[in-house]
Design the sequence.
């Protein structure tokens, strides 16, 4: 790449290599040295966005999940979306009930190895493929049963299409989880889907808000605010806390882009958004691509021979390799992989019964967000949408996005050797031992009066102090500018029309002779006294 090459150039080069025309659904993701994920911005230089040294490692990913993946125009686009969703399933992002999981895995198996053949597929053949973060023998038998009896005769394209249709109905379809905490300190995952904003806690979807109900998103430091307006209820503000300010900014930018892509009718309606109401603080960001409606209209005009798809080698599959290379077992034995998730399953029952945010009414994409109220809390057991049989804990949320297979296996092995679960909670708990956490503990010890403040109150106090400091700095800056202008008016010899008109006003002459000249003489007297004192000493 040339040093001044923009992100759009790299993205177009990649899409040309893949022979991809419906490219607006995809993006390039990278991880900075601080392990924070970013989407490559196409309007900026690639090199300037990278804080690491070349060679740069990036990943081609689905950025905006299609509202209806089965309606995509070309098979190559459906295949790439299929690979992304298969990856989501493997890393625990696409969470579903056991029956749905077995059907999805059977579709993958049919697309990868074709029809069941007793001569080629011995008993237990489905166990040689890793579809999910964890397997059970019962689930493997169910996958093999569906593959043998229900999917015979389906081509890879048909199986992938059926897989997409089934995945699109799941409540975690299109979820790219952002780990956060709510105002009570409970762990949560925030995500933006084609249908709206989603909050997941435990194995439940506790919030679902349609895009047309989201009026504003902003962030300050680690705090993310979502403003919701509904017809029958008052305006609601949801507040969440990200692990770092960089993670909060990434969450905000993802929200701005997703809302623009799915909600707007034309890209000309896109506006620059500020994270603050004041011009002198906050970040500014603008979505630079086309919106979903424009993409669908453009796709309908595609007229070309369908490009050839090389399923065995176009994009290597982590979950289940092509049968042409022979089935391979993961470097981590399945029994050990199961052990990784023991701690997650032990806490499952307590997670189901733990306190959550205000629940949603039902379990479909069209359901509206239910605001806080006594009736909502009384019916929480019925209105919370249970999305799966286990807790939502994406396995790769703590991993860099561009991770090689050998790096993934080594990381899993090292985690198992230490007995650590492969979840986002590990990273959050490890923060307690960092120097920043120790400094915070010392600060609380020095300030006993602040010991009773909770995380939410401490965040509000810090936010207030930061705002006051910014306001003070801006005020001092404005006064300094006015002082410079006053000195130019009174002491300089500039005789421009602007300055001449000001100097001739009665108010300025009165100010000059009655206030400024005495003040200047007083400063000069004091300055001479200080200089004489220094000379004497």
Sequence:
């Amino acid at each position: 790449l040339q040093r001044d090459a923009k992100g759009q150039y790299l993205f177009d080069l990649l899409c040309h290599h893949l022979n991809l025309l419906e490219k607006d659904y995809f993006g390039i993701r990278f991880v900075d040295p601080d392990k924070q994920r970013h989407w490559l911005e196409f309007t900026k230089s690639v090199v300037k966005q990278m804080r690491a040294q070349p060679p740069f490692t990036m990943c081609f990913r689905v950025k905006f999940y299609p509202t209806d993946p089965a309606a995509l125009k070309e098979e190559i686009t459906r295949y790439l979306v299929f690979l992304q969703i298969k990856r989501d399933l493997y890393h625990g992002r696409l969470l579903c009930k056991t029956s749905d999981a077995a059907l999805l895995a059977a579709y993958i198996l049919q697309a990868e190895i074709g029809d069941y053949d007793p001569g080629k597929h011995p008993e237990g053949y489905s166990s040689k493929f890793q579809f999910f973060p964890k397997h059970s023998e019962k689930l493997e038998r169910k996958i093999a049963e569906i593959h043998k009896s229900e999917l015979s005769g389906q081509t890879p394209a048909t199986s992938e299409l059926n897989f997409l249709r089934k995945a699109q109905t799941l409540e975690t379809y299109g979820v790219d989880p952002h780990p956060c905490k709510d105002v009570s300190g409970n762990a949560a995952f925030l995500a933006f889907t084609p249908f709206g904003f989603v909050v997941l806690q435990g194995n439940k979807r506790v919030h679902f808000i349609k895009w047309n109900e989201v009026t504003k998103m902003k962030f300050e430091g680690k705090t993310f605010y979502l403003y919701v307006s509904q017809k029958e209820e008052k305006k609601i503000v949801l507040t969440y806390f990200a692990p770092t300010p960089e993670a909060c900014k990434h969450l905000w930018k993802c929200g701005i882009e997703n809302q623009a892509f799915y909600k707007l009718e034309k890209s000309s309606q896109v506006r620059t958004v500020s994270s603050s109401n004041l011009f002198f603080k906050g970040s500014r960001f603008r979505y630079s691509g086309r919106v979903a409606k424009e993409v669908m209209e453009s796709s309908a005009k595609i007229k070309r021979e369908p490009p050839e798809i090389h399923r065995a080698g176009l994009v290597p599959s982590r979950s289940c390799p092509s049968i042409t290379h022979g089935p391979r077992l993961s470097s981590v034995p399945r029994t050990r992989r199961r052990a990784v998730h023991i701690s997650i399953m032990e806490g499952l029952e307590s997670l189901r019964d733990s306190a959550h945010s205000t629940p949603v009414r039902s379990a479909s994409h069209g359901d509206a967000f239910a605001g806080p109220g006594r009736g909502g809390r009384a019916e929480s057991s019925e209105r919370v949408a249970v999305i799966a049989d286990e807790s939502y804990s994406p396995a790769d949320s703590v991993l860099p996005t561009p991770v090689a297979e050998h790096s993934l296996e080594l990381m899993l092995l090292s985690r198992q050797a230490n007995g650590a679960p492969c979840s986002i909670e590990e990273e959050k708990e490890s923060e307690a031992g960092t120097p920043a956490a120790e400094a915070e503990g010392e600060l609380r010890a020095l300030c006993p009066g602040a010991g009773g403040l909770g995380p939410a109150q401490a965040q509000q106090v810090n936010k207030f102090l930061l705002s006051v400091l910014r306001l003070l700095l801006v005020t001092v800056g404005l006064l300094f500018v006015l002082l410079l202008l006053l000195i130019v008016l009174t002491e300089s010899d500039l005789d421009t029309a602007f300055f001449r008109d000001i100097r001739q006003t009665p108010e300025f002459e009165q100010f000059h002779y009655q206030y400024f000249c005495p003040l200047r003489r007083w400063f000069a007297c004091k300055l001479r006294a200080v200089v004489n004192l220094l000379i004497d000493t």
Notes: The radius of gyration is 30 Å.
